[in-house]
Amino acid sequence: MLKLLLQGLVRSPLTEPRPDPNDAELAKLAAGLDAAARRRLGRSLSIREVDAGSCNGCELEIHALQNAFYDLERFGLRFVASPRHADVLMVTGPVTKNMREALERTYNATPSPKWVVAVGDCAFDGGLFSQSYAVEGGVSAIIPVDLHIKGCPPQPVDLLRGLLSLMQASPARHAT
Amino acid sequence: MTVSLKEALRDCPRVDMHRPWPRVAADEEIWRSIAARLHDGDITLSGLWGDTGAVHMAILDETSAELVVVSLECPERNFPSVGQIHSPAIRLERAIQDLFGLTPKGSPDARAWLDHGRWGVRHPLGDRTEPAPPAAYAFLPSDGEGLHQIPVGPVHAGIIEPGHFRFTANGETVVRLEERLGYVHKGIESLMQGAELLHAAKLAGRTSGDSTLAYAVGFARAAEAALDIEAPARAHWLRGLMAELERLANHFGDFGAVCNDASFSLLYAHCGVLRERVLRAAQICFGHRLMRDCVVPGGTSVDLDEKGIAVLHALLRDVRQQFPEIVSTYDNTASLQDRTVATGVLTPALARQFGAGGYIGRASGRAFDARRAFAYPPYDQLSFVVPILEEGDVNARVWIRIREVEQSLSLVEQILARIPGGAIRTDLPARAGEGMALVEGFRGDILVWLRLDNSGRVSRCHLRDPSWFQWPLLESIIEGNIVADFPLCNKSFNCSYSGHDL
What we know:
By secondary structure, chain A is of the alpha/beta class. Chain A contains eight helices and five strands. The chains are: A alpha/beta, B alpha+beta.
């Protein structure tokens, strides 16, 4: 163990640089979110993840946000264990009918103001599963969605960009 | 003296065009006699699934590495329950009842399993009928003084899939755990019906995201068997390479997560770095971190170039330099060992009865590995060891993963050194046939059964995740452990919800 700890002192950090906030893609993501929402969110976000029927691919990449390369806590972002502690619900999957009620109850248990980020192609519109008897066909069919991050699954850096766009400083925030 | 499986099924008519293993049509008497042999334990249940007006059962004879599918027509819309004498079949039969409306006669558990009464339809794969009104799920009772229940899920505290766990505890000690699954049922097998082969392959690759490559290989092999074609040699080797990368990434992730559930985050962080390095190498080599849609019926959709080979050699160097220190830290940290040793013990008898695959079976003395038993290419030309332990505790399941990481590193190295050149994909003819595959994913053997119609479209596809035979065992091993050790037990199993719920 000593060797592992010593390596930590001498090796340079693995952390990726912050994604460029002026990225065109990021601007597009942020465009869907009004300035007032961003103002209220401030500099820190607590996120509750809800799997509403994903294949678990999105979960793997959301997990990766916590590794040494992406280290999302440095941006003031963290995952919390209860919707009652959350500002943001991060929802994956096409919303299966068997998960619909659980998703609605989780949403209702999250205090306002709250935002919903739908992650992955099937969370967008049901993806490949949209024609099934067992799915509702996307998160926005059930609860209001503020931001979609597409991909199958989206890469961690895409997730990070999307979350940063939620927090991106807006002129309005500085004015208040 | 017991007769061999082949001998017992000698008089059953064999179904044409089912490859590579035989499929036979049985009557109820034969069906019952096979159930009895499953109960005796000389053969293993590898799958049990519904079809239009029929049920199929895949039987594995581990000693002779023989696989056979036994089919039973159900004109009366019922069949003799296998689960009444062989419990691993119970949930599979409940799923058949939910999806096809075929009733297992004499089943000890008549409750719905995947159907939560919310689909708007009953028996979506059989004769569709109006849904029954949703009813509360009757959990099994536990009676005794001082018992209390802890309901958990479907939305859990961590970033994991949804499922419900109903614990009954006496103080800190778990008396009973009952799982309720089906929350992520997406209707994949229904979407498969009538799908073009390449579209169906995409669906198969989205059955369980962590095993997307293994599912794609399983589906491709089943499709190639049904069409009676062979993928090019280079495609087989690329599939093997990608399968071992997937195994490495998942084993690193699980190893770290078990340590994290014992609050030892140092190893979680280091294992997370190794996992990320594998995924990044996959991205560079094959254009996708999880290698999704990289394997298709007929071959692979991506090739490996010189740059990719260099990246993988660098990955091997990195992992071999860092992994031993991580392992020795795990082995020399008493507080961690205190949590994992003798926790969540799965007995070899139970592992054998359920045909538990992957690290779960191999940590409890069941030596089965589809790569060895059926030696499908490229594994017929590679040398590797299948690690076995007898202890069956969380620690043993961690050690099997450690040993498999070492084996996978060696396999990647062998493949890089000897991968043949040539084409990576062959054309697909459009014709009817039935095919089947059993491939080794990181969590165990995945069974894919496929029937194609004359135009080469899917008429029925069944995907059996290894978790079907592992989830019930989790209920068993937690008994007598403390509630706080459940996350460790659960993570050491790491069953798939999505692969199971389908």
